[in-house]
Amino acid sequence: MLDKIVMWIPVDSSLVDTTSDGRHCIFGFDLLDLDLKVGSYDVFKDDEGNVRTQVLHHVWSKIPTSHTAMSFKLFHEGYSHPYVELKCSPAKIMQGHNVYGTDLIEQGALEMLGYLAETQPTLFGMLAVSETEVKQLDATYSFRFRDDREAEKVLALMRNVSTQHIRKSTKDATFKNTLYFGSERCKRYARKVYVKSNEFQEQLVEQIKLSKKNDKCAERVVKVMSDPDLQNYAKGLLRFETGIKCYAMKEQNIPTNLFQLIRYQRANPTFLQDIWLKSNHQLFQAFEGTNMKVSDHETVFKNILSVHKTVSTEKKICTRKANEMMDFYLLLENVGVNEAKKQYTLKRFLNLFGELLESGFTSTVLQTLHLNPLHNFDHINVYIQLYKAFKKEIPAGTISERKARNIETFYYDLERFGYEEMKTKYSVAQFNKLVAALKKCGYSLVYIQNLNVQSTNNIIPFIKMFEMKFEEQVPVGFIEPVSTFNRSNLKIA
What we know:
With 493 residues, this protein is an alpha+beta fold. 42% of the residues lie in helices and 18% in strands. An eight-stranded antiparallel sheet has the order 6-7-8-1-9-12-11-10. A two-stranded antiparallel sheet has the order 2-3. The chain has a two-stranded antiparallel ribbon with strand order 4-5. Helix 5 packs antiparallel against helix 6 (216-225), helix 11 crosses helix 16 and helix 12 crosses helix 13 (346-358). The chain is elongated and about 105 Å long.
């Protein structure tokens, strides 16, 4: 659904002059001659005590429509060419709600321009409407869950999600039922996720308050939003809203001139859906895999081992124990028995010392190694002796669990410390390698990033959650809205 249009309508170039310092102004123009809400950046008293103003500007204002109001502002001077910014939800001004709606730009844009022409005819006459630029389109599609409670659990789960190119919002918590991703000033996409039914009820409360103040538009909106069928349709919807900026459209060779864009959509009717899927692909991909919470550690290890066990293809000699004993021998030679004891638990030290005795060294030799190292055995001969005593033959077909155990340890550390803290304990490459190893076991990125969250959110099975069905975004029998000004044949350009 097309949930928002932001457009800039420039003032006709024939009315605009550029001063020597590069600023733009409108010929013979006085902001106070228009029926606009005007503010001032400079208010002062003159020598006679009279209040004076300078540097006037138009403040953001509302244009009433058949339903919700539409925001607009005239930027009449400055270093940019003068223009009017117009923004609203086409679905809301045409239908009175945005629970569902059309993807088509044409009728919504016509409605917006029509109300501007009707309420501000003098200002509208100054504009080069044919040069209108679309600065942002909000594409909104929803996934349906059994109820709002389940949708809220998914929203809470997504608070910890980040991907290579989609970062968590700088806002740590959800704000008014809404989770943001990335910066609001990003030049390509502005993403947010929210539970529609909650937002719907908040908007209804606001409109009821306005209607009690004799706001006729609000009264019409309340009538629409009070429909039980509409309210029921909104339940269980988790909405993904993506603001598509003009920069992103230009990168994909999509025209940003309003009328060229309308013609482009006629030739490419699914282009909004395509951009929305592309911009959110990594978010949805993060949910691929298993998201069922498994508290049984034995089951976790079996799952990891089934993927990451290594099987030797030929007979091998394992020298790990021999190397360990050689390190212990060199430690005794360097610091002596008493200092070496301090580096181990007593039980571990006695085990290592006893194993050296079993390999052929005497207690007297080991206790005096540090006294005169030059008279000790040659290190090569020592290692040969240890190698013969501790080498281990691994026959072909032997299964090694070492890699699986390392990955299992990483899993439990994530569970204990959390995803963000664990990132600081590894190099980027090493951390990503371990995360990839867990994903290979079937665990989704969302699951991995939420392992330490002690919440029942983790037990929802989301394996098939993000199967988008665009054909089910509107109820059966939905009729595409038509602009009021289309029906009245009002010419806007």
